[in-house]
Amino acid sequence: EMRAVLPMSPLGVRPAVVSAGPGAAQLLVSVAGLEASQALACVLVPESAYGGGRQSVAGATVIANASVTGRATAACSVEGLRPGAWALFMSPNGGVELSAGSAPLRVRQAMRVTGIWPEVAADSGGAAIAVAGAHFEQDASTSCIVGGVLSAAVFVSPQELRCR
Question: Which residues form the IPT/TIG domain (predicted)?
């Protein structure tokens, strides 16, 4: 059973949104009361299992080794997170005891591009390009890079974006 430890508490995590899928997500966590320990860990619990109050969760918890990267920051690399809302706790002893507080983390489906139209456009630019795919979200950070030029993506639907 996991128990709360009061002195250490995550204040935030960057990035706050990561994509599910192959590969590990690299997280940088701001932590109040951070103390280096050999078994420092990030402990991620799905919000649906955590319920905002319990800190004793079996099965769904993901524990990843963490390393201190600064006076109040730690880094961890996590894999196997399914899409949804997660609570990130810190642990000084590999997940046996948890920080009293947590930081929110959202995992979304990885976006996938299946096609673009038109396939050929003038090299002078300015043409609107439709991007077909899956799992697109209305998010200000979503952008297009065409011919090395970055432009904002306009969300049309979860299956379509438009780029200029």
Answer: 112-164
